[in-house]
Amino acid sequence: MTKRLGIMNYKGGMGKTSLVVHLAMGLVLNGKRVLIVDMDPQGSVKAMLGVKALSGTYELLLGAQPFSQCITPVRDGLDIIASDERLFPASMQMVGFPNREFVLHKRLEAVINYDYILIDSGPSFDLLAQNAMVASQRLMVPISMDFMSIVGAKQLLKNVKIINRLFDQTICVQHVVPTFYMQRQLKTAKVMASIDALFGAECVRNPIRSCADVSNAAGLGKTVFEYKPKSRVIPDYNQLVKTVMIEGDN
Ligand SMILES: Nc1ncnc2c1ncn2[C@@H]1O[C@H](COP(=O)(O)OP(=O)(O)OP(=O)(O)O)[C@@H](O)[C@H]1O
Ligand SMILES: [Mg+2]
Questions:
Q1: CB of 99 sitting under 6 A from ligand 1
Q2: For the chain, how long is the longest CA-to-CA vector?
């Protein structure tokens, strides 16, 4: 069965897209077939993977092209539905659609030829994010080691409750992933304690350390798995991949 996961936090620069592409690549290296759907008009997924795309999320959401034509294959076992700045006007058009929060959900309903669909979102709570939330149902929330990032996570939790109540959904936060982790910082310990208190320690996953290899790899359109397989951040991503695979099987 295809499992869907939405990667989300309303605060910008939490490492969402980096997490999406490394989780996807890690799953692919474990033999899984993965699709990434980019719901952020910034279009960072395709940039981080070093590809260009002729069509993608814009065409998918507006129903302008069949699903198969919205896909860009990027690596063996990894496809993306890429976005660009046209997503913003697309979301304005979607405001007039019936069941506008369920558009992505509908478009992905019949897609079964992947083990995982990972949905990346931008740093805001707009109609695109609401669509990502409803389509994924299970969320992964990256939180950087900064007090302001807790604020974004709190807002996210509130909005999950609102969406669940308004639309009779059962959306939940399944994984909380500390990012930009620096072990010996006093602030890190305090933020980690707040994360545990807010979400419950059972859904807090191993942290992803702060490591320049992540941004250096992105600059070359590669994942760290490809750019520097011996990087010290690789065990962090691998551990998370393992957790996601185990959790998904339960
Ligand atoms: N673990 C890490 N260590 C060091 N740099 C990182 C790490 N993860 C991400 N980065 C860098 O931080 C920046 C922001 O990361 P990213 O684009 O993944 O965040 P985002 O939450 O998706 O941002 P936005 O909210 O704009 O979509 C990028 O330059 C990325 O390369
Ligand atoms: Mg992003």
A1: no
A2: 51
Give the 3-state secondary structure of residue 98. coil
Residue nearest to atom 23 of ligand 1 (CA): 13
In CATH, what is the architecture of 3-245?
Answer: 3-Layer(aba) Sandwich (3.40)
**Radius of gyration, CA atoms only, the chain:** 17
Backbone angles phi, psi at 56, to 5 degrees: 180, -130
Per-residue tokens: 137: 């149902």
Domain assignments of the chain as residue spans, ordered by start: 3-245
CA distance 154 to 147: 11
* pTM listed for this prediction: 0.97
- Token pair recorded at residue 36: 């990434």
Q: Report CA torsion sign: 204, 18, 54, 91.
A: positive
Tell the residue nearest (CA) to atom 16 of ligand 1.
Answer: 15
Model pLDDT for residues 156-200, shown as the tens digit of each residue:
999 999 999 999 999 999 999 999 998 878 889 999 999 999 999
Contact 11, 155 (CB under 8 A): no
Question: Is residue 50 within a helix (H) or strand (E), and if so which, with residue range?
Answer: none
Most informative mutation of 211, 214, 220, 231 for ligand 1 (most atoms within 8 A of CB) = 214
Q: How far apart are CA 164 and CA 168, in angstroms?
A: 5
Neighbours of ion ligand 2 (CB under 5 A): 16-17, 44
Q: How far apart are CA 240 and CA 236, in angstroms?
A: 6
Q: Which helix (H) or strand (E) holds 142?
A: strand 138-144
What is the C-alpha separation between 41 and 52, in angstroms, rounded?
A: 14
